[in-house]
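Protein modeling request. Please complete all fields; requests missing the sequence field cannot be processed.
Requester role: graduate student
Desired output: 3D structure, token encoding
Chains: 1
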Amino acid sequence: MTKEQKEKLSNRLVLNFGILLAAGLVLLYVNSALRGGFRAAGITYTIMLIVAVLCVLLGIFLFVWGKKKKPAVKNYSAVCLGVFIGCAMIYFSGLNLVPAYTKTVAVISVYIAMAVYFIVLSIITSIQLRKPTIKSEAELLARAKQMAGKKKKKRK
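Delivered output (156 residues):
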């Protein structure tokens, strides 16, 4: 694994942490809105449904666009999947299908899912970063040119 690949992995981990941190802050406001009263909760559930549908559509678009034109964009479709799962977990608490699955339990479940995701991602990234660093072809060529230049100087 080259230095660039290692840097890319660590940047991905930092980016995911930032996204999860922002999602955690948004979830605080969602929790406040759900506890605000019947009308606020109803509006929040409607917004959660709209956001979930938009995330599915955006996720599919990013995945297909990433497959066809920009491979780097494909990875961001996973963010849409995560938002959809979080919205679905909170939205189903409003349907009262399971008596013990309340609004508070749903929000806590989303927080736990976010924490588990980040912990697993951190473990996977740390395992990948432990692979030995190899030099890229450009670095090897530059080193070979440098060594060739030193050999010519020694001969003179």
